[in-house]
Structures are given as C-alpha cells and as structure tokens.
Amino acid sequence: MKENYKSTVYACFLSYIVQAIVNNFVPLLFLHFQWEYGISLSRITLLVTVNFGVQLLVDLLSAAVIDRVGYRISMITAHLMAAAGLILLTVLPGIVSVSWVGLLAAVIIYAIGGGLLEVLVSPIVEACPTDNKEKAMSMLHSFYCWGHVGVVLISTLFFWVFGIGNWKILALFWAAVPAVCMVLFFRVPIASLSKGEEGMSFAPLIGNKLFWVFLLLMVCSGASEQAVSQWASAFAEEGLGVTKTIGDLAGPMLFALMMGISRAVYGQYGERWELKKVMAASGVLCMGSYLLITCAPFPVLGLIGCGICGFSVGIMWPGTFSLAASSIRGGGTAMFAFLALAGDLGCSGGPTLVGIVSGWFGSNLKIGIFSAIIFPLILVIVLIRFFAVKRN
C-alpha cells in the first residue's frame, strides 16, 4: 500500500511546483507590465496583494467545502483553476478595455487554484501511509523552492533567447504543468486524513492557545519569505542597478535555491535538532539578511543578502506546519486550512508593506524591504515566549 501511495506523494510534489508557478511567474514580469500596459507601481503591488488575498479568502472558506466534496474533486478543481488563470493571463489584457483589469481577473482565477492547493497538499501528504512524515513534509515544501528555481531559470533563459515580449508563449507552457497534475489526480489514491474520525472544527481550535501561536508564526513566516521573494527581481534591477537577466538569476532564483537547500538539509538531518530553536535562529538570521540587503554599500552584498534570506526563511513555513501537526492532534482539514490562511495573510501583507513603504519614499525598495524586518522580529519574540511557557 505504501508503494501505491508514493505516486500520490510525487503528484503532491508536482502540485507544489504548480504553487511556485502561480506565485512567482508574474513577479518576473512586473517591470515589463509597467512598460507594456502602462501600469503604475501601486497597481503592480495590488496584483501581489490580490493574489495572496484571494488565496487567503479561499483558505478561509474551503475547509467545510473540501470535507464535503472530497480531496480528489478539490485537487482537480485547484489545478483546473491554476491552468485557466495562466492561460487567461495571455488573453484577457488584450480583449478588455483596461488591460490592468484583465491581468487582475486572470490573477484572481489562478489564485483560487493556488489557495486550494495551499489547503490540500499538506494534509494529503500527512494522510499517506508513509514512514517519517516530518521528512516527507520538509521534502514536500522543498519542491516549492525547486519549482521557484525552475520558474526563474527557465523563464530567464526564455526571455534571453526569445525576448521578454514573447512572455505569453511561456505562460502557456507553464499552464501545462497544472494540466498534467489535474490528470494525475484523477488516478492516484488519496487517504483520509482523519482515518474515519471527524477532524476538529473551528470552535475547539480557537479555544486552543497553541493554535493562535501557530497562526501568528504562519503570518510572520509568510511575510518574512514573500517580502523579499516577490520584490527580489525588481529590487535587483532597480535597487542594485543590474540587468534583467542578472536580476532574475541572482535575485529570486538565488533566494529560492537557498530556501530549497535549507529545507532539504533539515529534511535530511532535522531529527538531530530541536525544531523551535532552529526556527528562532532562522528568524535572527533573517533579520541580519534584511539589514544586509538594505544597507550593503555594494550590489553584490545585497544579492548575497537575498540568498541568506532565502536560506533563513526555508524552515519557517514547513516548521510551523510540523509543530502544529504534532502539538494539536486531530486538527484535521480545518487546522491546515486556517494555518494556510494565516500564511497567505503574511504572504499578502509582507510584499504589500514593502510596496506601500517604498511608494512613500519615492519607490525606494531598500527602505520598503527594511520595513518588513518587523515580521522575523515578531517571529523570534513569539518563539522565545513559547519556549518560556513550555519550560514553565
């Protein structure tokens, strides 16, 4: 039976690559959209906010629906929406009177798919009858990073060879990935997370103090990651004065590569370390990386800071999922849904704060990114307080 469920785990790995496409392809085109469609930085910021805001709303509303219709139909729907949104991204801006509205509509559609995947993939892997679930969970989340690396690398090479003006062809290529995943989830076996028992509803969860700790950790984790990830390409180009190709490779791809390495390392050796302490140390390292990104006198140091930031945030999101799964037994779909909601709230809030603060200071992304240091700071404070409570 475990052998049969390997195909399910592999399909979930591929699903997180879909999640990476949904979250990281369009940011590579931010500056091009400004030129092609005449969109201001504030409206570009709104595309980020809407993407994660819609995912957040889906997280909030999906738990009850998923339990009723089942994981299979929900996963098929998620991939269908992701593929449709990426396809419409190439069509809608050219057929509506306001191009930005077309972009926004496409983002909303694929964000629905991304939100469903955020809720579904982790509990499906958690339910599979496999050994060493923490390792499987860490490896699962590392595939988001490898997907991010692939999106940036393949997209950058495509832009270099064929020109960024042909980005619509690439968008259709990326749309094929969720289409393949959709076909896979017609066939792979899917186990029940609760094994026949009712998972916890929201009412018992909100009465659990640890649940609120994990929600706050998820907000800070998502914000710490995406505040740099979503703006890394634009920051490298404008803030550090490098070309589009170098900006994409040395900014978001380096960030994703280092994040994937940190998750793979923890997946391999994590049983030797205490997770909460690793997360606290990661938060401190994250703050240091923010300072290096924003205060470095030389561009190369800022790029190194992007890589350090990726490494530091790698364990935050999957680490919080693992802590919650081991600390709140029987949390079920509702717990995973609200953790994903909190994470997406952070993913929306972090880049939005960077965009708003940057706008206040004349589109200065260094100042905007510096303002987001509040998120890893809160994460560290919460973890230290959590340790104190556990000792007492």
TrEMBL record:
Keywords: Membrane, Transmembrane, Transmembrane helix, Transport. It comes from Lacrimispora defluvii. It is found in: Cell membrane. The chain crosses the membrane at residues 12-32, 44-66, 78-96, 102-122, 143-163, 169-190, 210-229, 249-266, 278-294, 300-324, 336-361, 367-388. The keyword Mitochondrion does not apply. It comes from the Bacteria. This is MFS transporter. Gene3D superfamilies: MFS general substrate transporter like domains. Belongs to the major facilitator superfamily. It is a multi-pass membrane protein. Residues 8-392 form the Major facilitator superfamily (MFS) profile domain.
